[in-house]
Amino acid sequence: MKNLVILGAGTSGTMMANHLVSKLPKKEWNIHIVDQYKTHYYQPGFLFLPFDIYTENQVKKVGEKFIPKGVNYIQQKIEKIDAENNLVELENGTITYDLLIIATGSKIAPQEIEGMLSEEWRKSVFDFYTYEGALALRDKLRDFKKGKLVVHITEMPIKCPVAPLEFAFLADAYFQKKGVRDQVDITYVTPLSGAFTKEFTSKTLKYLLEDKNIKLVTDFAIERVDIENNKIIDYADTEVDYDLLVTVPTNMGDEVMERSGLGDDLNFVPTHPKTLQSLAHENIFVIGDATNVPASKAGSVAHFQAETLTDNILLYINNKPLKEEFDGHANCFIETGKNKALLIDFNYEQEPVTGTFPFAGIGPLKLLKESVFNHWGKLAFRWIYWNVLLKGIPIPFVLRNMSTTGKNINN
After folding, report:
1. Minimum mean pLDDT among 312-321, 341-350, 357-366: which range?
2. Is the pLDDT of residue 336 over 80?
3. Quick check: 79 and 37 in contact, CB under 8 A?
4. Domain 2-105+254-318 adopts which CATH fold?
5. Is residue 197 predicted with pLDDT exceeding 80?
């Protein structure tokens, strides 16, 4: 029997286990999935926890219930990948593989910036990219009634690049609802030259920031957090004052990649952008946030990657050429507050544009325009995540590769 080993039982790893369990010949292949954690988190829900829109129980479930029968679930810490000898060192023992899928995701690294991970961490300096950080921030926001709120991105790439913008928009609506918006000054600070990574989308989002009286500070390459004087300072000595700093720290791949010699400077694994095969080892494939491909690190991207990767795994074991198919497709809702949201759809080559999705001229979802439909689409995605996406079930009318149908490509 041959072994296919999946490292990581988050969104990408769980989807791959569900895709492959019914497709690999059971008399020839054993499938193993390794993860030390017992809880599976719905990470897009972390955005809503600080504003009391979601509860804790809506964003977490026992991970084991999503691992299909026929897959060996190993709950151990991953120590090292020995790619030369096709084995993985675990906390207690080793496991050999014929084919390896790396789905270990990315994590925040506040220790990378001087002063960020200090005694003020989760007192006046917060993240919301972790379950613990989102809950701590929720408790802080409940008592925060006036002062300077700074929403900050340290550097790119980050998981779900639209999430910090959504946080700023939701904060605007949250403080309006509490009747204290005029006493809370909101500033959005980014290392980019605009509000978002894509130029056309940046123009739309800049208008929304202005409309909501949210200040925008661009090209801010942070050097340090001055916790004594409540300032963030960049390499050009630009200073931004805060009373409450909500930051997205540096995102990095799992430390296992550094220990294994498989990662780049940020521990992301060099990966073919269209086949998702490791550039260094042909029997290793990489998916989701663990890759270094220039796509968004978002759940929708992992979903589209999983469909291409499943096909390529089957082609690989049958000694056939891989599909150079994945196009970087991302499909993301941007919550803008007051029960409205935008939807953006783009890939490696095509920026987000206006139009309708998924049906040309009908929608019902509008691209790059605020609508209530888009807001409900965002909220409905939680049910889809738990009941469809994780189980590897195709989402009707949503294609793995970006379609230009219904889109105003030339705007």
Report:
1. 357-366
2. yes
3. no
4. FAD/NAD(P)-binding domain (3.50.50)
5. no
